[in-house]
Structures are given as C-alpha cells and as structure tokens.
Design brief:
- The complex is a heterodimer of chains A (344) and B (327).
- Chain A has 344 residues and is mostly helical.
- Chain A has one domain: ABC transporter involved in vitamin B12 uptake, BtuC.
- Chain A contains 14 helices and no strands.
- Chain A has helices spanning 2-28, 33-45, 48-73, 81-96, 105-134, 138-158, 191-210, 212-222, 224-229, 234-261, 272-282, 289-303, 307-311, 317-343.
- In chain A, helix 4 packs parallel to helix 6 (138-158), helix 4 packs across helix 10 (234-261) and helix 8 (212-222) crosses helix 10 (234-261).
- The radius of gyration of chain A is 21 Å and the shape is globular.
- Chain B has one domain (3-311): ABC transporter involved in vitamin B12 uptake, BtuC (Orthogonal Bundle), CATH 1.10.3470.
- Chain B has helices at 3-32, 40-58, 61-85, 90-109, 134-138, 143-161, 163-173, 175-180, 185-211, 224-234, 239-262, 268-272, 275-288, 292-299, 302-311; strands spanning 122-124, 140-142.
- A two-stranded antiparallel sheet of chain B has the order 1-2.
- In chain B, helix 2 (40-58) crosses helix 9 and helix 10 packs across helix 11 (239-262).
- The longest helix of chain B is centred in the first third of the chain and has 30 residues, at 3-32.
- In chain B, 51% of the residues are buried.
- The chains are: A mainly alpha (344), B mainly alpha (327).
Chain lengths: 344, 327
C-alpha cells in the first residue's frame, strides 16, 4: 500500500513537470495546448478504428519492452533492441518470401514469426558474446549492431530482395494476401498478435517474479560475483537474458512485417526499439506499469499523426512528450534517491 | 585521377570532416573528464536548428553559432546534473535526451523548414590560396573548417601540456585521488561536460549554416552524432587520433558518393555504416590486447602488433561512473 501511494505520487509529479513543459512549448509556437492535447486524445481514442491503430503500435512496443526487462534484470543495457527488431523483421520476411506452396498459410506464418524471433535472438547473442568474450560494453556493441542491421535491411531492399525492375525506399513487393495475419470483421488489429503480446506479459510476470530462473537472474544483476558462490554461472544467465530479450524484439519485428506492413520497408522498426527503452525507463524497470505506459506512448504516436493536418504542428510532438516524461521521471527518481541518501 | 580532382577530393574531405571533428573533440573532452554524454545525435540536430533559426532571424552568424553552442551546453548540463549530482545513469539520461532533442528540433523547427537562410561564405586565406593547384581549392573554405583544424592542436595542447588538462584527465581516471588532492571532481566534470556540449552545439551550427546548409525534416545529419561517439572510441580518446578518425570517415563518405556510380544498386546509407563495425573492432582489440595469449600471438606478427598498438587507446577509468565525495 505504501508502495502504491509512492508510485501514484511519482506519477503525478512526473505529469506535473512534463505537462506544463509541453504546454509551454506549444504556447511558444503559438498553438493552444488544450487544442493539441484534445487532438492527441481524439486521434487515438476517438473511435474504434483509431484505437485499433493504437493497439497495433502497442503490440510491438510491449513485446520489446518486456524483452528489455529480462536484460535489465541481469544488469545489461540492451540498447541493441532496435537492431534485433530489424533483424526479426528480416527473418520473418525471409520466410514469407518463400510463399505458400508447401504448407498451409498459418503454418508458414508461424514459421515466419519463429524465424524472426530466432534472428533477433542471434543478433542479441552477438552483442552478448562481444560483451562476455570480447569485453565490448553492450551499449556500444548494441549501438554498432543497430547500424549494421540498418545496413543489412537497406542492402536487402535495394539488392537481392528488390522489387522486379525498381528498387526504392518503398520496400519489397507486398506478400500475398494469404500470408497476412487474419483479422476479425471490422478490426484493424490482428487478434492473434494481440493475444501474443498479452501472453508475453503473463509469462514474463511469472518468469521474472516467480520462477527460479527469474530470481537467479535478479541475483546475477545485483551481484555477479556473489552468485558464483552458489554455483551459478553469471555468463550463462547474461547470455540467456539477452537472447530472450532479442527473441521478443525479433518477434516484434515479425509482427511488424506479417500483421502490419506485409512487406519489408527500410523504416520497418518505426523506432519502437529505442522507444521501448524509454518505456522501461519511465516504468522504473518494473513490469506492471509497462503495458500502461506502452499504451500511453502508442496513443501519443497515433494521436500525433493528425496534428500536421489539424493544427499545422509537426507530429514529433509525440516524441517530445515521451522524452519529457522520461526526463521528469529521471529527475523525480533521482531526487528521491538523493533524499533517501540524506535521510539514511 | 588528375591533380585538380585530387585537391577537390581533399577539400571535400576537409569540409565534410569539420563539424564532425568539432563534435568528436567536444565529446573527447567530456569523456576524458569521466562523463559520457550520449545525447550527441539529438543535441547536434537541435543546435543545428537553433543555430539556423538564430542566424535567420538576426542575420548574424556569430549569434547563430552562440545560440547553438548555448543549446549544446544546456543539453549537456542536463546530462551532467542528472548524472553527476543526482546519481542517475549517465547513459540513461543521455539516451532519453538524444531521442527528445531530435523530436524537439523537428517540432520547434517546423516553421523554418526549407527556408533559404544565411550560409557561411568561403574565406580565402591570404598567401596560401595563391599556391598553384592546391591553394585555390584547399584554402578557400568556410572559416569553421580552418577552426576545426586549429581545434585539434588546441585540445591536444590543453589536455597534455597544461595543468588544467592534467586535472581534467585526473578526474576522469581517478576522481578519488583527485579529490584528496583538493580538486572537486564533480565541478570539474560538470565544467567539461558543458564545454564539450558547447562544442557539439557549435558543430551543429557548422552543419546548418555551412556544411549542410538549411533546415528540414530530415535535415540530413541524422545519425552523425552516433558516428561522432563511435569515432571517439575508435580514436582511443586521443584528440589527434579522434580527428584522424573523423577525417577517415569523411573520406569514406566523399568516396562513397563516387562509389555510388560504381555500384548504383547499393544506397549510400550502406557505406555510412562503416564506422560502427570499426568501433566494435577497436573495442574488441582494446580488450583482447590485454590478454596474455593474444599478446603472445601478436609477437609473431610484428606488422599486426604495430597496428594493434596504433589503434589501442584506453578509456578513462572512471568513464560513466558518478563520483560520490563521501565514499
């Protein structure tokens, strides 16, 4: 109860800093903050169709954020999540390109998602391996691999996987309709993808908080030397954590390809990998707030799309609000830590 | 390739490298003092926008550069205060800032997109520009290009030949020891985070007012901040090697444009990825070189050993760790 109260106070404090800051910026460019916030809300929750678009952002964002949580628990900063998402998309697209001749479409789709998760985890394993065997800090290994992944996807789209005749930034040839994840009548979101994200939340909650693996992971993150005494190998746990992290990011990339874009485009990640790092930071590395924050961020992303048309504002307002929230959170958490240090 | 196109190539490399050198040297100063400012990509973009806006409104380049430098310093101050004084992870603050500043730049800069703004004119250096063949091309550049080259020497001299430079390196290597000698590591670190940030800001203005003039979404310098961060590592935190790394990257970029003609199917962005595997390789070498088995293997290959020694550079020992005075 004490905890819940503190989280509520923190949330209110964060909003009390980020809200006025954003309003000030809006006033600075001569826009009415009330109008802007109104458009953000109506653009995301205004209709079922808009809300289903929000869910389409929420799914990959949540998958990536959950993955990050495993890495953070073990003490790893998996900034390479962006590249793992991209490679996941490549893996899924690679299988979908083969077509449906051999098996039923659903089986191909499942295989494609699996390939995405596999490629994502391999890309993560590379970063983990560089860290453990090569002593390369995971932030720089991850960042570097993100850009290499970008190079790979561009090369594929302009090279081996280009459209017949024309190679362009618009991406590869769309996959045949049978290989699109099925949607229910009137839905713009795939119920299967939605179920996947919900299942990932439940499983992650159990693994991290109740399984032996999750507890050991936490111990490794807190004190990698001490766990050696218990006969645990910190390296194995670090690698496992980053592999799971990469698999979930790869799955997110697979969803982007198979349920949303139905082809491979250069901007297939939509920056959700990097954005998921902000989600987890704002959640203060805890699981429970993640689905809610991901929903908030997704709503901002979708709601901001209509800003240029309705108010002649740049849609990057969404990113400004997201960043302002995270920085306010870092300030609030930092001040609280300072106070705790002074008290104790 | 005849003489003229070779000098043209060289001039292109110098101009392309100038803002990158300034930004990377700024980050070198910051990291040498033990602070890692990960916000470079966003702060370059935001200061490029602010610099363009200020110069457009006032018609003064000085004001443009000053506004950009202040922008860079303010962003760096956030990294410094949140990290050094509030104990938050420096990389976390820097990362959040890099994403936010990029969006902030697009948001606030929207009214200035695609406007024809002021643009730095080339400056002819007297005497030197009269040198046949080389002179007219090499010594007719915007002032900022000459300044970037001057800055290399200046940063090197400051770091390795002055008392303050020694103190800067001391707080980056061993803040506890510096503290017992009466230096306040946190104040020093904040100072050089600000100085580094101001240089990054100036580099942003060098882009939007000279090397990649104008403002828009995209501006065309997205990703350069990450490249600057990679180059600091690749250059082993040594100002001269960092500058050489920036020149090497600029060379690859200029060459890449010509290579486009050779392999038209490969987009230029693929060539831009090059600094990142190089950064990873540099870090890998750095750590492998400390291992006994690797050293033995190197002794049998003197050529490779020399290369490793040249590439090697150790990160400041306290990099990214927040110093607590009462510990």
């Amino acid at each position: 109860m004490q905890n819940l109260k503190q989280h509520l106070i923190d949330t209110l404090l964060i909003l009390a800093i980020a809200g006025p800051f954003t309003s000030l910026l809006l006033a600075l460019v001569g826009a009415s903050p009330a109008d802007a916030f109104g458009h953000l809300f109506s653009g995301s929750f205004g209709s079922w169709s808009k809300f289903s678009r929000v869910l389409n952002v929420w799914i990959p964002l949540t998958l990536c954020s959950l993955g990050l949580l495993y890495a953070f628990r073990s003490g790893l900063w998996n900034i390479g999540v962006e590249g793992q998402l991209v490679l996941g998309a490549v893996g899924t697209a690679g299988v979908l390109r083969l077509g449906v001749d051999a098996a039923s479409p659903l089986l191909v789709l499942m295989l494609a998602l699996l390939a995405g998760a596999l490629l994502g985890s391999l890309w993560a394993l590379l970063a983990g391996w560089l860290k453990i065997k090569g002593g390369v800090h995971e932030i720089f290994a991850g960042l570097g691999l993100n850009f290499v992944a970008m190079g790979i996807i561009l090369w594929l789209i302009f090279g081996p996987w280009k459209r017949p005749g024309i190679a362009s930034m618009s991406g590869t040839e769309p996959f045949p309709r049978e290989l699109w994840f099925p949607m229910l009548e009137g839905w713009r979101v795939s119920p299967f993808a939605l179920a996947l994200a919900l299942a990932a939340i439940v499983i992650t909650a159990w693994v991290l908080n109740h399984s032996r693996f999750g507890l050991n992971l936490k111990a490794v993150g807190h004190n990698p030397r001490a766990v050696l005494l218990y006969g645990l190998s910190p390296q194995t746990y670090l690698l496992t954590a980053i592999i799971i992290s990469g698999a979930l990011a790869g799955l997110a990339g697979g969803v982007q390809v198979s349920a949303i874009y139905h082809r491979l485009i250069p901007a297939i990640s939509s920056g959700y990998g990097y954005l998921s790092l902000l989600v987890v930071m704002l959640a203060n590395f805890r699981l429970l707030p993640i689905p809610l924050i991901a929903l908030f961020f997704a709503a901002l992303n979708v709601g901001s799309i209509q800003l240029p048309m309705m108010m002649q504002l740049d849609s990057s307002l969404a990113g400004v609000i997201q960043g302002a929230c995270v920085l306010s959170a870092l300030l609030v958490f930092g001040l609280r830590r300072l106070k705790k240090g002074a008290d104790g | 390739m005849n003489n003229l196109s070779l000098t043209l190539l060289l001039a292109g490399v110098l101009a392309t490298a100038a803002p990158l050198i300034i930004a990377a040297l700024g980050e070198t100063l910051t990291e040498k003092a033990g602070v890692i400012n990960l916000s470079l990509d966003g702060s370059l973009l935001l200061s490029a926008m602010v610099g363009f806006m200020a110069a457009y409104e006032s018609g003064s380049f000085t004001l443009g550069f000053a506004a950009a430098a202040v922008t860079g310093a303010v962003i760096a101050a956030l990294v410094g205060i949140f990290g050094i004084y509030l104990g938050q992870l420096q990389v976390a603050v820097g990362f959040a800032l890099t994403l936010m500043c990029k969006d902030l730049a697009y948001f606030l800069g929207n009214p200035y997109a695609r406007l024809q703004g002021p643009q730095l004119l080339s400056l002819e250096l007297p005497w030197l520009s009269d040198i046949p063949l080389l002179g007219p091309v090499l010594f007719r550049q915007p002032l900022v290009v000459y300044l970037s080259l001057l800055l290399i020497a200046l940063v090197w001299w400051y770091l390795y030949r002055t008392g303050r430079g020694l103190e800067l390196r001391a707080v980056g290597e061993n803040p506890e020891a510096a503290y017992t000698r009466g230096i306040d590591p946190r104040r020093k670190q904040l100072l050089y985070t600000l100085v580094g940030g101001a240089l990054v800001g100036a580099a942003g203005a060098a882009f939007s007012l000279g090397i990649k003039p104008g403002w828009g979404r995209p501006q065309g310098i997205e990703g350069i901040g990450w490249i600057a961060l990679a180059i600091v590592i690749f250059g082993g935190w040594h100002p001269v090697k960092v500058a050489l790394g920036a020149l090497l990257f600029a060379f690859l970029q200029v060459i890449g444009i010509s290579l486009q003609g050779v392999w038209p199917s490969i987009p230029a962005q693929v060539f831009q990825v090059a600094p990142f595997p190089m950064m990873i390789l540099a870090l890998l070498l750095l750590n492998l070189a400390q291992r006994e088995t690797f050293r033995h293997a190197l002794q049998r290959r003197p050529g490779l050993a020399l290369l490793v020694r040249r590439l090697q550079g150790a990160p400041p020992r306290a990099l990214g760790q927040n110093f607590k005075p009462d510990r």
